[in-house]
Amino acid sequence: MTVSAKGRAARAKEYLKGWVPYRYKRYWLFGIVTVVALVLPFIKINGNHFFLLNFDHKQLHFLFVRFDMQELYLMPFLLMLLFLGIFFMTTLGGRVWCGWACPQTIFRVIYRDLFETKLLGLRKRITNKQQEPDWSKPENKAKEGVAIALWSILALIAAADFTWYFVPPEEFFQYIQHPAEHPVLVGFWIGIALFLIIDVVWLKENFCIYICPYSRVQSVMYDDDTIMAIYDVHRGGHIYDHEGQDSKKLVHNIKELHEREPEAECTACESCVKVCPTHIDIRQGMQLECINCLECVDACTKVMGALGKPSLVQWSSPREIEKREGKTKYIRPRTVAYAVALTIVMAALFVMGTKKEHMLLNINKTAQLYRFTHDKRVVNDYTFLFQNTDTKDHTYYFEVVDNDKIKIVKPSKPFKLMARKKAKKIVQLEAVEPLAKNSRKDTPIPITIRAYAVDNPEKISVTRRTVFVYPRWDIVLKKLEKK
Does the predicted TM-score (pTM) go above 0.85? Predict the structure, then answer.
């Protein structure tokens, strides 16, 4: 080995000292995301889940608080939080979700890199995702069958995990013991598993490229400060002609590149191309197929690091790499706007969540506006639908809080309601004194009903607005004359 070669080796060793590929960091994050997704449905506090949209019981569990169907006003806030979070994340880090946390990416890494490459040897190297196995060999087809079988088991687990966010695990395992009694649940579970098998084994990254809508909308959220995998054309040289109409490739090897640009550092090894799971050439510039997995950054770092030079493909922004205009601006009008919007939505969600009612009450007036009792008093009839949303039994009653001329006739005493149960009550309110003397029309009197738990009125109490219809005064006088 010559001195210069020894020097380059030492320089490369020093340059790559302590370097940890992004691929390994992604694996760690994949493991954390997977464990959280699998464990979270089993964690309960006071019988409530972190997140559960239960159509069977018409409930939403969020942050270990249970909300019933009448309280689903929180859903718009959750959806706004989801979309604003995606927009904010994309503006800052491009498709970082796709490469670092998306289930599709995690599943493909498990199937392609773990099963096909590491366990079964169908693919020679993880760093070459373009080379397909030789399917003419019978042993390769047998190995692929084993890979599909292994993935089918994981697909059933993944499908069950997805289902647990709609059907709690404790009920899910009970239901599948009697599949004939729960065909919808079983069909939903098996259907998702079949989709995952088809998607991961046959659709592959084509799902990301052609089906996933995220790649279609991401480009409108990018700006010069969005972090992404970028090829440094100033150092590496122009591999593609971006002046042409179809970005035609200009060079095919390092000799052609150096004839055009003698200072170009790209070695034309195409390691960044071979490792790309979506089969693009990052040297062509930003492309919607890029999922920000940073495999190309790792590949170029290894090659250029051996030469003692920094990678030509970096996780950076166009402002730093392409335009050479200084450091990336993380705080800018677009990110500030998203951050403010996220803060407002989160605050609204928190405020609305803290106003959870431990009982629900719907008041419906009957079709008959009013009626007279045998002693000529005016009575209005209502249907009250109570629901105890607490985990304990309570005794309930109610009162008219803003009009002492109206009293409760029926029911005459408090009633008990079991935890998480509903009760329908026919309620009669009576005017003990004249409420209006209008001889031209009936008079609707706004009233406020307060329903409460007798055993805990401070905590469990709700108010509802309704009307008491008082008849025309001439009708009341006629009834009184006949008394």
Answer: no
